[in-house]
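Worked problem 6 (solution included).
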Amino acid sequence: MFDLRKMLVISSFGFASGLPYILIFSTLSAWLRDVGINLSIIGFFSWIVLTYSLKFLWAPAIDRFSIPILNKFGKRKSWIIFSQLIIIFSLLILSTINPTEKILAFVVIAFFVAFFGSIQDIAIDAFRIEYANLSDQGNLAAAYQFGYRLAILVATSAALIIADVYDWSFAYLLMSSLMLIGLAAAIFSKKEKTNNDLKVLNFSEAFINPLKDFSKRYGLTLASMILLVVATYRLTDIVMGPMANPFYIDMGYTLTQIGSVIKVVALIASICGVFIGGILIKNFGLYYSLLAGAFLVMFTNLFFSYVAVTQDVFLNIANLEIPLNLSIVVGLDSIAAGIVGTVNITFLTSLVSKKYTAVQYALLTSFMMLPGKFFGGFSGLIANYFQTISNLNFGWMFFYIFTSLLSILPLYLIYLNKDFLRNNEKYI
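Solution. The predicted structure is:
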C-alpha cells in the first residue's frame, strides 16, 4: 500500500545521503580550482571519499551499537541523527575556511563530512530495509533515489550558481542548512521498530566467509579474473571524475554555465542512459552489454579531448550563454555513464550468492570503486604533467586520451571471460 508519510521520510533521507557526497566529491573540486588550487592537490582530495568505498569495514559496529541519549529515537535513527549533526557542523565550519590559506584544516573538515556521510548511508540503508514490509521496498527504493537525485541537482547546479552569484562560503553555508531536511525527518518521523531478527555478525561471518564462498563457487583462477573485471570496468570514468569541474573551469566556462547547463544535461542524460542500459541487457545479454558500455565510455571520453582544443559555439537562450559543443559531449558521456552503471549493477548482482547477498554485494561494489578512487587521486598529477609538456589545452587533450586508453584493459578482460559471462546470463 502506498504510504505518503513513509515516502517523504525516505525521500528526505535520500536527499540527506546525496548532499554531502556530491558536495565533497564533485562540487568541492570546482571550489578548489576556482580559487586557484593546483590540480595535483585537487586530485588527492578525491581520496577523501574513499570512506564511502570502505564503509563495509565499520558497518558491523553500526549493527552492534547505538548512540547514547539519541537511542531513544531507535538504534538506526541514533546513528542517522548523530551523523547528520556532525555533517551540518562540519559544512558550517568548512564554509568559514579559505582553502588557499588553511588547506590542511580544509582537508580535515572535508574528511569529517565524508566519514560521517558514509556512516549516515549505512544507517539509512538499514533503516529503509527495516522500515517497511518487503512489498513496500520497491516504493521506498524509488523514493530514496528521488531524494538522492534531487540532492545531486541541488549540490551541483544550485551550489555552483549560488557560488557564482555570491561566493563559495555562502553556498556551503546554505548547503549545510539544507541538511536540516534529513534531520527533521529523523527526529519527527515515527519511532522505528526494534529489529528482533537482527544478527550481529563477527569478523569471520561479515568478511571471511563471503569471500571463501565466492572463491569456492568460481574457483580461485576464475574468481580472480572476475574480480579483475569488476575492479577495472569503471576505471576510466572514475579516474577522470575528480578533474571534470577543473577542466570546465580551465576551459573558461562560468560557474553558472556549469551549474545551469552542464550539470542539468548530465543528470538528465545519465537517467536516460540508465534505461538504455536496461534495454541493452534485455536484448543483447550481459556479455555484449559490458563490451558496449566499455566502448562507449572510451569514445565519449575522447570527445572531451576535442572540446579541449576547439573553440566552443555558444547559444543565447533566455540570456544564458549555452556552450553547445560541451553540452553535447557531456550529454553523450553521461548517457554512456548511465549505461555502464546499469550494466555494472546487473553484472555484480549476477555474481552474489543468496547466502551472502548483502555482504558480497557490498564487498564487490567496494572492490569496484577502490582502484578507480585510488588512481583518481593521481589524476591531477597526470593532468599537470601533460600541461607541462605541452600547454593548457593540449594538456587536457592528452589527459582525456590517456583516461580513454584505460578502457582497453577491461575490454580485453571481458573478452577473455566471454564464455563465463555468456553462461552467467541465465542467472540475471
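Discussion: The chain has two domains: 1-200, 206-428.
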